[in-house]
Amino acid sequence: MNKGTATFAEIIRQIEKQTDYLFIYNEHEVSLKRKVSISTQNGTVASLLVDALKGTEFSYTMEGKHIILTKKQVEALSPVQHKKRITGLVKEYSGEAIVGCNVSVKGTTIGTITDINGKYSLEVPDNATLVFSFLGYKSMEYPVKAQQTINVTLGEDSKALNEVVVVGYGTQRKALVTNAISSFKPSESNMRPVLTPSELLQGRVAGVTVSTGSGNLGSSERMSIRGAASLSASNEPLYVVDGIPILNSNASLFNMGEDLSSMAVLNLTDIESIEVLKDAASAAIYGSRATNGVVVITTKSGKEGRSDIRLNVSTGISKFANKGRIKYADSDLYVETYNDGVERYNRQNGYTVGSAGYVVPISNPFQGMPDTDWLDLITQVGHSYNVDLSFSGGSKKTKFYVGANYNYQEGIIKTNDITKINLKAKISHEMASWLEVGANVSGNYLKNNRVPGANIGSTIVARAVEQRPFDRPYKPNGDYYLGGTDELARHNPLQILNEEVSYIDTYRYLGTFNADLKYKKFSLKNSVSTDIGYTYDYVYYNENHPYGAGGGRIVEYNRLVKNLLIENVFNYNDKFGDFEAGLMLGHSFQKMSTRTSSIDGRGFPSPVFDTVGTASEIYNASGGISEFAMESYFGRINLSYLDRYILNVTMRSDGSSRFAPSDRYGYFPSVSLGWNVSKESFWKFPQTDLKFRLSYGKTGNQDGIGNYAWQPLMSGGINYGNNSGMAVTSMGNNKLTWETADQYDFGFDLGFWNGKLNMIADIYLKNTNNLLYSMPLHGTSGFTSIISNIGSMRNYGVEFSINGHMNIGKVNWTSSFNISHNKNKLTKLLGDDLLPIGANRALKVGEELGAFYLFQMDGLYQYDGEVPQPLYDLGVRAGDVKYHDADNNGIINDNDRVLTGSSNPDFFGGWNNTFKYKGFQLDVFFTYMYGNDVYAEWAVTATRPGYRMAITEDVAKNRWTAPGSSDKYPRAVNTLCGHNSKNSTRFLEDGSFIRLRSLTFSYTFPQVMLQKIRLKGLRLYVQGDNLLLFSKYSGWDPEVSKNMDPQYFGVDLYGVPPSRSVNFGINLSF
């Protein structure tokens, strides 16, 4: 360096630039702007430091390639006092060393800081007290007695960290939160390879359940917060991403594939935190959209004085899980069982060889050859690739974050894959002391090649596994067998996979532009947000496809959704002596428009022409536009006294165009109280925190009813003769009003040993009134149904979570566990009558939503004489199912069905454990559910011996053959035999399970090594997802369901299970 003067910052920068040395110092002790004199040039590093530090209060030590700057120890002791040297280690609860921690003697200027390994050495007088302090951690005092080694562990100081929780339209200090809010930070857990934020919460948050329709990529999902609260309106929570309410509508409305989650387009690595607002007091600020709770997602921002470049790369494989749980009969066993049914059928009907109606026994046409593994033919090992890159940083005035992501995943069913591309930019700039402006924009693209076969009356998997074991997909000449070797009219699953193309392209733009005005304790935030989404839905049926006969067929569907949100939020915060007060007032205007069009073209000159414009016939073309607007006023008052007594009050008024002018406005208040008992003078447990919470709130729901349910609608395309016309196609209901929910919550937060062990518990009651439902109408009305407010429902439950961390030797163990119980029941229905819905469900006052409406199986008839005459006349015989005859009239009809079982669990939750040893880390995450029932609809065909579909090995071997042979599986019958296949408790099973959801092993390289290669962080990991399932359920997976509506949830029709995957990845930061 040149002679003269230089700042500490310049000296450090030059030494690190010209050598391999790295500096360690306490930035609160060492002023980097301080200037010192340099009188040497071209000397050694040591001589330069001696020269620069001469005359200052600082000294240095060299340890390897690290230079540690500390304040010199100043002797302020009497010469008669004795000194001794104390050494030790300072670390945090995770076991990581704290570098640069201040270690000082209380009441003196003697002190030092910890080195790169968290170690220190200090000479102290007898009977001294050491003080350990570091920014963001609670200081600790330790009296020195006879020991010479003192190791300490510092806990995080929530006050120093100024820990805040995101709430509606703002943040709150955690100490002042009086609501049931759960926070989740993806960075603090091992992020599973999932597509949506809700799947990240699976098993992590008490009171929250997340289920997927199937394991197919892009399939719909169901997230429930404290149970289902509505019948036909939406039961999904409101998602708010950086202040923008995200539309819950699924991307696909044309039933050409499984519905795509509206959240699937987001890049999960952009997420900073997720807050789940569970009680009405926290959610009421969002008013009419918050009955089912609110999920607030905050994305990452740049930090002042800190620049980061992060690169995450991963790849993995996935496969069909639990394939062997359903074991099918082989060809020999199938033929034997089938022919048993043939013989019984012919004998019962008096048919002989050659007579009309006689059914000929079958044989295996491929005897001696391997059976066809139909499931293997349609499944694959899926591969995935993910690359994520982000840049962030900032100065005092400007902060920025830029992220990009590419994600490709193959499904476990052939042809199924997803490609995602995400770009995001977030910037804020302080134009003046009173004005800050910002922009937050993201562009998202997603392409989902879906599993074909949505319109074949079942799923592609069901069509595959129902094939007989000896059937072949292709004839010797290469043509498809249509419905098996005997050419019966059934779908060939390979024909569907190969001759159908089905995909959806989704483009989404989210953008917010804001201006924040500040004056002393006042602030005003003005923002304009847009959420614009375009989806293109395409299905092509080749001429070899059953639906493409006659030259092929193309169906296209276009959907453009524009959502505009304008908000103005005023805040005032102040302190008055021991009181702290806050006021928030806001106004919001939202307008959404949806434009759709569809076209169905048929007859193409060649498969090369795959655009609808080349079709010889336009079979159907339609379009429509729909608009919706809402204007809202809202406010919140916060008041606290010494952080001890806390009061929060909110109010929101929503005006919605979905209701008639007389019922357009809804009002949603809330109030909550908090008592920090540990702030009281009588509290004698300094390391224990206790807070009680009590709240009430009202929320609303208006989703699921359409934009014009209150008024009659006319549609075009209603032609008379050769003239086009229009007609009224739906009846309006101008008496329609808000569906509302009143919720009460009581809970407590309890922490021991300065946060080393924490417990949270809540008990709640939620009453939903004016339930919205589509009621059937008499045919004479000319309409099939009308949306009405028909009743009330109650949900009540308990939630408990516990987390803690401890050291076992050199291993740090962190564990979190949660368990929840929720029950619901209908308390009022229009007319209080039982209302059947679907094939196996019904609504009834006093019963829960989710109960099954089934015939009660009472075993099998063992002798013909046991069969009631009316049933005997219908062909029921010994070996057929015996149902409970409720009215004892010998006839089994709907009057004999009963409400039984439920798809709702008795309790559910998750358990996560993290073990750290030096740089190694093992994460083990379980989820569980107990007491939920599953209706195994797949078993209706798979347990029907004697019919021309595949059956399970268990049924074939243990079917009824003679009196006393079985009381579970009926006889083989060579007909559909609807009697044995009724919706009954025969197919109702216990769906309880424990699942090893995720297992991750990782290694994080130490900072000492990384600093040599100019890296901030390097982590390698291997992660397994859905590795183990423990369940008595006989199907592949108890969590899947063919319908995600809570009225019908829990029915499994060969649902594709969540895939079992293994991923390898690397995380780099610069």
UniProtKB/TrEMBL annotation:
Protein's cellular compartments: Cell outer membrane
Keyword tags: Cell outer membrane, Ion transport, Iron, Iron transport, Membrane, Receptor, Signal, TonB box, Transmembrane, Transmembrane beta strand, Transport
InterPro entries: Beta-barrel_TonB, Beta-barrel_TonB_sf, CarboxyPept-like_regulatory, Plug_dom, Plug_dom_sf, Secretin/TonB_short_N, TonB-dep_OMP_SusC/RagA, TonB-dep_OMP_SusC/RagA_CS
SUPFAM superfamilies from the UniProt entry: Carboxypeptidase regulatory domain-like, Porins
Signal peptide: none
Gene Ontology cellular component terms for the protein in this record: cell outer membrane
Record-level GO BP terms: siderophore transmembrane transport
Cross-referenced Gene3D superfamilies: Carboxypeptidase-like, regulatory domain, TonB-dependent receptor, beta-barrel domain, TonB-dependent receptor, plug domain
Lipid bilayer topology: Multi-pass membrane protein
Domain Secretin/TonB short N-terminal: 21-72
Domain TonB-dependent receptor plug: 177-294
Principal place of residence: membrane
Gene Ontology molecular function: any one: siderophore uptake transmembrane transporter activity
Domain TonB-dependent receptor-like beta-barrel: 469-1027
Family per record: Belongs to the TonB-dependent receptor family.
Name of the protein in its database record: TonB-dependent receptor
Organism: Bacteroides faecium
